[in-house]
Predict the 3D structure of the following.
Amino acid sequence: MIVTGKLILFEFRKKHSRSGKALDVWLKILEETEFASFSHLRKTFPSVDLVHHIYTIFNINIAGNKYRLVTKINYGEARVVLIRVLWTHAEYDMKKNRENLKAGRI
């Protein structure tokens, strides 16, 4: 897969240094695997969610600190993962962020 928006990962790691190793593993898997569908992706990432048929949200869990990586994925010929935002669990649960996800404004 081609992964775009890696700057978001880089900036997040500056604030949350414990996330680095898990994000590196996530990125390596995505870049080395050609996922053909959401169900194919879910075999590798069982906790991944498809939200409102728009966003694929990965749950990144590091020593009890949970992060939510919000992406859009094109499973077609291009096979592109667009990183939209990376939040802490608390940020993900904020009402305004939930509303923006539901409305497709991320």
